[in-house]
Automatic annotation (TrEMBL):
This is Double-strand break repair protein. The gene is LOC108848716. Keywords: Chromosome, DNA damage, DNA repair, Endonuclease, Exonuclease, Hydrolase, Manganese, Meiosis, Metal-binding, Nuclease, Nucleus. Belongs to the MRE11/RAD32 family. It is found in: Chromosome; Nucleus. Core component of the MRN complex, which plays a central role in double-strand break (DSB) repair, DNA recombination, maintenance of telomere integrity and meiosis. The MRN complex is involved in the repair of DNA double-strand breaks (DSBs) via homologous recombination (HR), an error-free mechanism which primarily occurs during S and G2 phases. The complex (1) mediates the end resection of damaged DNA, which generates proper single-stranded DNA, a key initial steps in HR, and is (2) required for the recruitment of other repair factors and efficient activation of ATM and ATR upon DNA damage.
Length: 693
């Protein structure tokens, strides 16, 4: 709430108090359960204030009493690879260990979080950052931070936030999550370690697939610090049959004005000796008072359904009582703050009133005058099933979100290339993480996957345009089926962002996507590499093609002259009004490739014979803008060696049909020949490799 004049400093005061408590109690380290920042890209003001608080409390001359004995380069994945208090250039007296949450999780090209900024400043030890890698469900390995202080040894496991649906599948997939245990050392057995896990996931059971069950966790753990849930359940609770206890510290300030957040906020002081621990809960005194209540208008005797004034009077009385209740709690405090007040009103059978107008009379008396009231109606489903526990309800910030799957179902759309789940992930990253490349990455990943599927088809198989559309649809079904067999539902095209290689491709003409009009190409080769077109920007453009026509469906200004002119050459073929063989020779000399492949060698003799069989007269009347037929292999072999095999044979067979039709109808006029060209050969783009010579 940094833009709210009243509440903008609340979270900083609470964080300052937490750090002060840690200093006063002389703790060994401070452990945070994620979501230190509420925004994925916090403002400069927020970052500066957070760094100031950490500098004030963490940098001092106090000695650190424990030692990290594990491989720190594995535990801390940053440029320095060691715990912050071991840096000789810093005096760190209070080490802070933190994982990321769902609000401040890594995003963008370099997969960085706001916590990485604090880590680079040597103020926070950022751990629990996982690289899921690849598509599918993924695989992660949890390495503990091993700490030793005297005879007490602690193994601290961290798991930063992963999408709940995915992590849920990972827990149910064998060997997808591996837990590393400390090695047996002299005088220290594996059972001597006190094992702590910090994670940041849904715990509420409203949707089992969208939450993590405590029973997924391994039994060797002793203590769980569960982040993400805002309700403060600080007292450790034992999980039956599992042998470990769970504490849920909750948020330090009220972010959503619901019943769960109105409970007092605490931190937990955890003292460990051997395999025993002692928890001490400490209340936070700087938190703004928050009073919450729910009323059902039809259950109140003093309200007339036809009299709006009676409703207003009753609600005024409830608000005054809550303000008085909050002031009594703050009697012993020197700094009295305006309280937060929220009344949930069930108005079934009654009129609503304007919440903003109602709140105007409480300006200066409460901290949130604009949203004191929230109106709701009891649903019939809710009446049948009874009241739902508040913890089971959706958070307010999630109520207005609608996923792609629902939108697609509403519009009755048929998705042919982009899976619904992938679009859903891209939308979440675009909106919540401000990842401007989210949709680009989604499209690129799925285009490559589709091309790879099509490339596996037989070389001899040919598709017409309509068949190609159907084939792409079939590819989507096959890809989704393959993912489900790998126990996966979403592509990992966004977990690490775009690589620098992909970004380079994008800046040099978006090589993968903009090469040619693939959707209009009627012949699909069986051996097309999934990343075709990537060599264009590294080859020199051939001479004599500057005047090639640029009409049609070109991609605009491409930085690669080779790509644009090959496309233009094929388009120019359509407007040629010469004979079929002349048009063929024009196409075979305009387009050129930088690939020298076995398939082109095989296709050469037949093509060359056809070219040479054309008369000199026809050669003299070839169209403008065409470069002279090359007699050397200039420009060949400059590529990466990946060939577009299979396309040449298909192209030559297509052109063979075209030439035979020319021989049969030799006396037809130019207009008829042009019609045949347009019908039988809509594009020769990408089928040009063997035609140059």
């Amino acid at each position: 709430m940094e833009k709210d004049e009243i509440r903008r400093h609340d979270s900083f005061k609470a964080f300052e108090e937490i750090c002060s408590i840690a200093e006063d109690k002389q703790v060994d380290f401070l452990l945070l359960g994620g979501d230190l920042f509420h925004e994925n890209k916090p403002s400069r003001t927020t970052l500066v204030k957070a760094i100031e608080i950490l500098r004030r409390h963490c940098l001092n001359d106090k000695p650190v009493q424990f030692q990290v004995v594990s491989d720190q380069t594995v535990n801390f994945q940053n440029a320095f690879g060691h715990v912050n208090y071991e840096d000789p250039h810093f005096n760190v007296g209070l080490p802070v260990f933190s994982i990321h949450g769902n609000h401040d999780d890594p995003a963008g090209v370099d997969n960085l979080s706001a916590i990485d900024i604090l880590s680079a400043c040597n103020l926070v030890n950022y751990f629990g950052k996982m690289n899921l890698g690849g598509s599918g469900v993924g695989q992660i390995t949890l390495y503990p931070i091993l700490m030793r202080k005297g005879s007490t040894t602690v193994a601290l496991y961290g798991l930063g936030n992963i999408r709940d649906e995915r992590l849920n599948r990972m827990f149910q997939t064998p060997h997808a999550i591996q837990w590393m245990r400390p090695e047996v050392q002299e005088g220290c057995d594996v059972s001597d370690w006190f094992n702590i896990l910090v994670l940041h996931q849904n715990r509420v059971k409203s949707n089992p697939k969208n939450a993590i069950s405590e029973h997924f966790l391994p039994r060797f753990l002793d203590f769980i610090v569960w982040g993400h849930e805002h309700e403060c359940l600080i007292d450790p609770q034992e999980v039956s049959g599992m042998g470990f206890h769970i504490t849920q510290p909750g948020s330090s300030v009220a972010t959503s004005l619901i019943d769960g957040e109105s409970k007092p906020k605490h931190v937990l002081l955890l003292e460990i000796k051997g395999n025993q621990y002692r928890p001490t809960k400490i209340p936070l005194t700087s938190v703004r008072p928050f009073e919450y209540t729910e009323i059902v208008l039809k259950d109140e005797d003093d309200i007339d359904p036809n009299d709006q004034n009676s409703i207003l009077e009753h609600l005024d009385k409830v608000v005054r009582d809550l303000i008085e209740k909050a002031s009594k709690k703050a009697v012993n405090r020197s700094d009295i703050q305006l309280p937060l007040v929220r009344i949930k009103v069930d108005y079934s059978g009654f009129m609503t009133i304007n919440p903003q107008r109602f709140g105007q009379k409480y300006v200066g008396k409460v901290a949130n005058p604009q949203d004191i009231l929230i109106f709701s109606k009891a649903s019939k489903k809710g009446q049948r099933e009874g009241t739902i526990d508040d913890s089971e309800r959706l958070r307010p910030e999630e109520l207005n979100q609608q996923n792609i799957e629902a939108l697609v179902a509403e519009s009755n759309l048929k998705m042919e290339i982009l899976p619904v789940n992938d679009l859903d992930v891209a939308l979440q990253n675009f909106v919540n993480k401000d990842d401007k490349l989210a949709f680009y990455s989604c499209v690129q990943y799925n285009l490559q996957e589709t091309r790879g599927k099509l490339a596996k088809d037989s070389n001899a198989q040919k598709f017409e345009e309509d068949d190609l559309i159907l084939k792409v649809g079939e590819c989507l079904e096959e890809r989704l089926k393959d993912r489900s067999t790998r126990a996966s539902g979403s592509s990992q095209f966004l977990s690490t962002g775009l690589t620098s290689e992909n970004l380079t491709k994008r800046s040099s003409g978006i090589a993968n996507a903009s090469f040619s009009d693939d959707e209009d190409t009627t012949q699909i080769s069986g051996s097309v590499p999934a990343t075709r077109g990537r060599r264009g920007s590294s080859t020199a453009p051939s001479r004599g093609r500057a005047k090639a026509p640029t009409r049609g469906r070109g991609r605009g200004k491409a930085s690669s002259a080779m790509k644009q002119t090959t496309l233009d050459g094929s388009l120019g073929l359509r407007q040629s009004q010469r004979s079929a063989s002349a048009s063929f020779k024009s196409a075979s000399t305009i387009v050129e490739d930088d690939v020298d492949s076995p398939s082109s060698e095989e296709a050469e003799p037949e093509d060359l014979n056809k070219v040479d069989s054309s008369s000199e007269e026809e050669e003299n009347t070839r169209g403008k803008g065409r470069k002279r037929q090359a007699t050397t292999k200039r420009g060949r072999g400059r590529g990466t060696g990946t060939s577009k095999r299979g396309r040449k044979n298909e192209s030559s067979s297509s052109l063979h049909r075209l030439l035979s039709s020319k021989d049969e109808d030799e006396d037809e006029d130019d207009e008829d020949i042009e019609k045949k060209l347009n019908r039988s050969q809509p594009r020769v783009t990408r089928n040009y490799g063997s035609l140059r010579r």
